[in-house]
Fold each of these.
Amino acid sequence: MAVLLRLTCVCYPLRSSMQSAARMAMNPRSNKSSGSISCLSTSTSAGTTQASTQIDNRKLPVLLFDIMSTVVRDPFYEDVPAFFGMSMEELIECKDPNAWIEFEKGWINEVELGRKFFKDGRPFDLEGLKNCMRSGYSYLEGVEELLYGLRQNNYEMHAFTNYPNWYQMIEDKLKISRYLSWTFCSCKNGKRKPDHGFYLDALQHLKVDPSNCIFIDDSKTNVNAAIALGIIGLHFKDAKTLLEDLSLMGIQISTDEEGKEICYTSYDAVGWWSICLD
């Protein structure tokens, strides 16, 4: 059932408000506890953030999304072992530990991946593997709707992902660029998370203070690397939890009063509105 609610405008809070919300989230005695907000940086004053926003008229924060297992189902863990007729443990034992990483960094192409994928160099159907992975790509439940809500509210969003140039197969199937830009892919940057250099390259490209970036990833290791550099890190668990965490930080997507409905917020000629799905 969909319920249409009219809302007042909620703006991205100043840093003091965000820190207060984060303290509430990490305080086990708080009624608004949410364990997945990992850190909020204090490296830039609220005044500086406000002034910067006024100067370039840029809506902050910028959101950086991991892709695999955060936005898109990763077929590697189930579909790929089945394609080879192996268990996951058998596949890990047989495959070269460096080939996929080098492919993700853009150091080798897919032909070289085909030669190096297995330790013993056995041949396999590379096109069949690509088709297997292509078939397995799909949005995780609730994530596309969340991205749509953020895009409708004009948030700047970028992919920040470890993936080879096969990301184009994901784009061709799911059209993720409707919501975010494929700006930071390891195959284009030559670096992978959690390498700090990858994060620093992203900050330099975006020209924003790290405390004005929110990074979402299903890997705690990658989130902790972001936090170490002053980036706001959110550990992804599922779309509803992420929506609640973003709402706590003042991002214009929220849950209803009972927390049972997910609301996607937008703006039209009448004002702010939210469609709530129970």
Amino acid sequence: MNQGVNLDLSLAQYDPWVIKKKLTATDTSNYGKLSLSQRGMGSITPQMRQSMREEMETIQGVEVKVHVIEEGNQAEDYTWRLVRESDGKYYMKGGWIVFARNNGYQEGDEIGLMWDQSYERFLLHKIVQFQK
């Protein structure tokens, strides 16, 4: 008797980017901060040291390193600050907007972020360049 079981296998493409974000006008404005999803950060923060999690809840936030994939393995990491506000929202500041402007990031671009636990840094990748 044929049970109609489908044994076809498919492989989904591996997607390491825990946070995928389409940049908004606020992310690329003079406010100079990149807002991050609470859901994505909820997956990342448990991988961080306790002291980092505690410091990110201060007004200054915690200093974090950010490695940009497009710049290659030998490139220097950027240093930004990660803040978790009292309402639970996360954002990066302290260098983000200068980086974004210098590298042509604009509203509509899509970026990906993940936490590299081995090096205690974020990895950033521009997934899609917005075309006007």
Amino acid sequence: MASVQLNGSSLVASLSPNHSFSHKTKLCNLKPSFLRSRHNATRLSRAKTIRAISTAPASQPSVADEPVDEPPAVDFAFVHSVLLPDGTPDVHWRRACGGQKLRDIMLDSNIELYGPYSKPLSNCAGVGTCATCMVEIVNGKELLNPRTDIEKEKLKRKPKNWRLACQTKVGNPDSTGLVVIQQLPEWKAHEWNIPKNLPNDDDSETST
């Protein structure tokens, strides 16, 4: 079976109808005396006929390109705590479906979350007891759930826009929008202002 990918979309056309091709040749067992006769030679040429059992199917029309609707997703701009060599923020763009914990989205997208606490047994693995997964919500807080009781206790001396990624749920499966997040806010050694019009990164990666 062969398949053809159409323009990078999930639309795949299968081009393998189950056709079988078989041909039979009808031959006769002839004696030498029979072959010497011209008349019989004519009959022999008629006997050696090929009968087609099935034929090749007619060429099928090419499958037209069909637009594929992408599922709803939330865009993320993760800003690292260290600036780039030219002094500009180091922004990493990602895209993920809503309804997930921010911690899971960051880890699945290879975004640094724990900093010096990333080693095994250095964090609580997402149960909310260590408070090492702190992030700063710069933009898009309306897409997030309110602070949980755990966050209110662990972050009572932190700015109101600081969250624990393990306690933060990003919208619903049908949510769309943009969330800008400062990674490792405790280790941030610079200040920056969010641009009015953030660029749309074509290299965004999707996490499910």
Amino acid sequence: QISVCLSVRCYVDDKVSKVAWLNRSNIIFAGEDKWSLDPRVELVTQGQLEYSLRIQKVDVFDEGPYTCSIQTKQQPKTSQVYLIVQVPPVIYKVSDDIIVNEGSNVTLTCLASGRPDPSITWRLLNPSAEALDVGEYLEISGIVRSQAGRYECKASNDVSTPDVKYVNVVVNYPPYIKEVRSSETPVGQAGVLHCEASAVPQPEFEWYRDERRLSSSQSVSIQISGSRTLLVVANVTEDDYGNYTCVATNRLGIHNASVFLYKPGTGRDINASGCVCQSFWLLLLSVLSALLKC
């Protein structure tokens, strides 16, 4: 139902002897006698010249032909208007926010009503916000992490402003260490090793020296902030120089990379991204550690 009042106007002259309003073949008013049982329908008369029909709260079922029929001494005459009811678009069903693993097939739903039937369009609200498929269902085969985000469903039919709803899609994927920074530190100074990973859910971090898992102590501090971790060696000694391993894990997988603490003058490139390695013992230790936490 639409909150609109409609007036269908009909004007007559003083030569008219009989007058009536009809909807299709149904009589609504004959003269001033109301035949319709619909309380929304009323007659509007201004003196003897106007014989108009008013419909409150117009409904889609009111669509159709309306006829003002008059009888004069010479001949009957009719004047007809066809009422077309247009309805603004309304989205009445949209998919809930979802969390899926990378590689899954995803179907997003957006159902809308309106007259004329609304057109459904989809967009992924990333920086480019490019248009996607048109239709009630958006199919994504083998979703990847770049397709995560906020999806916009828009229903339009040019009757009114479009109706818009949103679906948030989270894509889980295993960790990937995207940046490490080694440290060139003199003896007696604090050495800081950096490690940053990308993962959903957020990764957990561990640090290793050779085959020994490190934990915070007086000489070593492990700091974790979101997707980044730091290994701080407070007072570097000759024994501290060497290869360290940063391990990032979540329930979908594991990734590790080598980071180096080395003496000044050795010529190592401290801006290199680090050597990514996959050692069997390190993977096994990390998996066992994750199992022990469960």
